[in-house]
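the two lines:
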Amino acid sequence: MSNAELIGQDPGWVIALKGVLIFAVCVFLTIMSVWGERRIVARMQQRSGPNRVGKFGLLQALVDGVKLALKEDLIPKAADRVVFVIAPIISTTACFMAFAVIPLTGQVNFFGHTTVMQMTDLSVGVLYVLAIASVGVYGIVLAGWSSGSTYPLLGGLRSSAQVISYEVAMGLSLVAVFIYAGSMSTSEIVAAQDRLWFAVLLFPSFIIYAISMVGETNRAPFDLAEAEGELVGGFHTEYSSLKFALFFLSEYVNILAVSALATTLFLGGYKALPGLGFTEQWLGGWFTLVWFFVKVLGFFFVFVWLRGTLPRLRYDQFMKFGWKVLIPISLAWILFVATLRVMFQQGAPQLVVGVFVFSIAIIFIGINTLLDRKKVDVAKALRENKSSDPDFPVPVIPNSRTEQING
Amino acid sequence: MINFALDVGTTAAPESYLFYVLAPLSIVAAVGMLLVKKAVHSALLLAWVMVTLAIFYIAQEALFLGIVQIVVYTGAVMMLFLFILMLVGVDTSDSLVENIKGLRIVAIIAAVGFGGLLVTLISRATFGRPVVGLSQVNAAGNARGIAEQLFTRYVFAFEVISSLLITAAVGAMVLAHSQRTKSQFVQRDLSVARFRKGELKDAAGLPSSGVYALHNAVDVPALLPTGNPAPTSISAVLEARGDMIDSSKFELKKEIEEDK
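prediction for all of em together
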C-alpha cells in the first residue's frame, strides 16, 4: 500500500497526535540545537561554550527560553500594532507547516494502527513546501515594516529579497529531482531513491540546493539580513520577549525544515545508509526515525560549521552569486538532465547518448578554459601596470631595531 | 492524496464546513481591502483573499492549481506589491491630479463594463446540478491534466502571453536602467586619490568631529593639539548654514585654572 493510501485511512485522533508529535519534536530539537550550536561553535573557537546549567550545560537553552519569556514585551510607539503582532505568528506557523509533508519513517505500528509518520502525502508535496516558505517571507517583511523604524525596514527588505531570490535557485535545483523521480510527492521521491541517492545521481542539483538553503534561511555566511555591524538585529530589532522568541524558534525550525527537505529529496529520506538496509526493520520500523534525524542533524552540523568558518558576504556579491551564478548553472543543468532523461526514455542508441554527453563535456571544458585564460590575461595586465602604482608610505618593516623612547 | 471533495458533485461535509468558514472571511477581507486606509493593510488583505482562493481550489480537487496560486500570486506578485509600497513610504498619499487627460472617464467606463461583465457571468450560475467530468480530467493527476491542456490545446495562447510578459519586463528594465558614462567612484578610488593628489597628512582620512567626552556631536569641530579648532573635521555645509557650535567653550582651560 502506498503512503498516500495508508495516510488516507488514518482516523482523526492519529492525525491529531501526529501533528502534536511533530510540533513537540520540532520545539525540542530547536532547544537542543541552540545548545548544540553554541557548544560546537565554541569548540571550533577553542572555548568551552555553555557548561553551567545542567550536565554539559544541556539545560542552558531551556533556561534562556524561560528568561526570554519573562522579559518585558515592548511594542514601539511608531509600530503598526496589528501587523506587529501578526508578523511573528505568520513566520512561526509557516515553518511548522512545512513538516506536514515530510515522511519521517517507513511503515510503523502507531498505537495499534499501521501508518507512516507523515501528516499528509500531497501529490505536489515539494511544491507545497515552497509555497509555505513563500508565505513565511511575509512574516519577515511585515515585521520589518511594522516596527516603524529604519534598521528593521532595511533588514526586512534585505532578508525578503534574499529569500525570494534564493527560492528561485532552490526551486530550479528541485526540477532535476522531479524529472528523475517522475513525481513531486515526497514519499514517491524517497521511494525513487531506493537504489541510488539523488545526492550522487544529481550532484550539481544537490550542491545548488545546499547553497540556496543556507541563503533561504538567512544563516551565516548569508546572514546579511541581521548583520549586527550594520543593521543591529535586522527585521527583529524592535521585538522583545515572546514575540522575539517566536522569530528565534521559526529560524531554527526553518533550518530543520530545509534540512529535512534536503534529506528527503537527496539523501534517501528515512531510508538507511546503503548496505545497512536490514536496520530499517528494527523496532518494528521505528528505527528509520533514527536514520532520518541522523541525516537532518548532519545537515544542521554543516550549518553550524559554515557559521564557525566563513565570514559574511557583501550584499551585492551575494545577490550577484544567486542571480548570475546559481540560477544560470541550474538552468543549464536542467536542460542537460532533461535531454538525457528523454533520450533514455525514448530508447536512444548508446552511441547517440555517448556523443551527446561527450560534446556537452567538450563545450563545458572549452568555456572553462576560455574563462581561465581571461583570468590569466587580467592578472598579467595587472602585473605589467605595477609601475604606475602610487608609492604609498609603507610602515617600517619590523625587523629593524626599535629605539627605546621611555628610557 | 487526501480526497477533500469526497463525492464529486455533492458537497461533502468537510468541504462545506470549509466553505462556510472561509467564504465569509474571504469576502470580509475583500471588502476590507477597499476600505482600509493604509496601503500595506490593503495589500495584506488581498494576500489573504488569494490564500483563501487557493484553499478553495484545493478543496475542489485542483491541488496543483491551488499550490501554484500561493507560490505565484501570494509569494511573488503580492510580495512585489508589498515591497514597492514599503519603499514608496508609509505616509505618502495618492495624488488626485489627473496626469493623463480624460483618464477618469475611461476608468469609470472600464469599471462599469467590467462590473457588468461580472454580474452577467455570475447571474448565469446554476445551482443544484451535478458536476460532470472532474474525475476524467483529474484521472492522471491535477498537475498532468493542467500540463496537457497547457502544452497541447492552449500552447499558442500560453506562448503569446509569456512573450508579452517578457517583453513588458524587458521594456520596464530598459526604461528604468541608466547607462553609467563613468565608472563608479568607489572606496578604493577614493583611497588612491588621497595618496596621489592630496597631501600626505590627509592620507589617513579627515579628522572626526567633536570634542572628546564633552560634546561629541557632528556640529562641533575637533580641537587640534595646539588648541585651535580643526576646520576639516566638520562639514562645510554646516559652517555655511551657521549650524556650527564654537568648540572653544568645551576647552578645559577654565577648569584647570580653577584647580590651581
